[in-house]
Design brief:
Elements: E1 6-10, H1 19-28, E2 30-35, H2 43-57, E3 63-65, E4 67-69, E5 72-73, H3 86-95, H4 97-117, E6 122-123, H5 148-164, E7 168-174, E8 190-191, H6 195-202, H7 204-208, E9 214-217, E10 221-222, H8 235-245, E11 251-253, H9 266-275, E12 281-283, H10 288-297, H11 303-313, H12 324-338
Parallel strand pairs: 1-2, 1-12, 2-3, 3-6, 6-7, 7-9, 8-10, 9-11
Antiparallel strand pairs: 4-5
Length: 339
């Protein structure tokens, strides 16, 4: 299978591909791509960029983006409507769990319409992390709440809304970044809670959410499981916790390996992620020299990882015929009632 994709998702530098990027992607064969704010100018431009990315590898490669609502949004007004942070939806839950669930679904369905219109078919959302207290730590208002039952319900609703709009969700950050209070872009968060506590609370949303084909790891060190390796590079966390205790059989994607929670060179990090049996290495910053190192370190997709990617490629959802104007008004009314 000389034309099989490499087990990696890569970014790009700007709003259109350079000649160098086109040639590199053609030769390197990444499984998918991810977009950031630097890649966004207009919806028409993003649609053209996603077409260029897919053309460079000669297939309908998945194109991912982080579109959670709140602070983590790559598409923003005036290109798309405003979307609340997960915590804003979580606060509705205190008054009415049903209204909060409806708001989470509506946000997911409307975001999916925005993404699909720009050629993006995978959203790195919802966040399933549970902070110790609401709005705390690195995850802060990206979390739906600090109680497992609430997070489970609202994350499921958002994921269902995304799929109803033809976009596949990637839940994050498995097995749970909530207690990892440090910013993993800058330093390695360390969590020292006992495994029994983590299993009952932090891992629960990842265990209970249904119909999910992709999950993103966290760069967090869980001392009760592996005192040396963060989750993204820990064979023990991947095998015993993600695959075992949580029971996730979908595609596991690392968090961005250019984040400084991980040690070593970019090549070291890519090799460590692959050695941990994480299916896909994610590298986001679009820097050519680093992407070359990732491509050299990443394995060709095969075995169970290949089967998981094939399952995703044959399970792309088709958008329903929801009335988006009505749904947008409904979301606004729910948010206003809860404010």
């Amino acid at each position: 299978m000389t034309n099989a994709s490499k087990a990696m998702i890569l970014g790009c530098s700007g709003t259109r591909l350079t000649a160098e990027e086109k040639a590199f992607f053609r030769a390197a064969r990444p499984w998918g791509f991810i977009l950031f704010g630097r890649n966004v100018e207009s919806l028409d431009q993003v649609r053209a960029l996603t077409a260029e990315l897919r053309e460079s590898v000669g297939r309908h490669a998945p194109v991912l983006i982080d579109q959670e609502g709140g602070t983590v949004r790559r598409l923003r007004p005036p290109l798309v409507r405003d979307y609340p942070a997960a915590a804003s939806i979580g606060r509705l839950y205190e008054r009415s769990p049903v209204d909060a669930r409806d708001a989470a679904y509506a946000a997911g369905r409307l975001m999916a319409a925005d993404l699909a219109s720009a050629g993006i078919d995978v959203d790195c959302a919802p966040v399933l992390d549970i902070p110790p207290e609401p709005d705390t730590g690195f995850i802060a208002n990206r979390a739906f709440g600090a109680e497992p039952e609430q997070v489970c319900m609202l994350a499921q609703a958002m994921a269902d809304g995304l799929k109803a709009g033809g976009v596949l969700p990637v839940v994050k950050h498995m097995p749970g970044h909530g207690r990892g209070l440090a910013d993993s872009h800058v330093a390695l968060p360390v969590v020292k809670e006992p495994l029994a506590v983590l299993a009952e609370r932090d891992f629960r949303p990842f265990r209970e959410i249904k119909g999910i084909l992709m999950a993103m790891t966290c760069h967090v060190l869980f001392t009760a499981i592996d005192s040396e390796n963060p989750a993204s590079t820990s064979p023990r966390v991947v095998s015993d916790i993600m695959r075992g205790m949580i029971g996730f059989d979908g595609l596991i994607i690392s968090d961005d390996i250019s984040m400084n929670a991980l040690a070593g060179t970019i090549a070291d990090r890519a090799r460590a992620v692959a050695a941990a049996d994480v299916d896909i290495i994610l590298h986001c910053n679009g820097r050519m020299a680093e992407m070359v190192m990732v491509a050299e370190a990443a394995p060709t997709l095969g075995g169970a990882a290949l089967l998981r990617t094939e399952r995703i490629e044959t399970a792309r959802p088709v958008a329903d015929n929801a009335d988006l104007d009505v749904l947008s008004l409904r979301l606004d009314s729910l948010l206003q009632a809860g404010s």
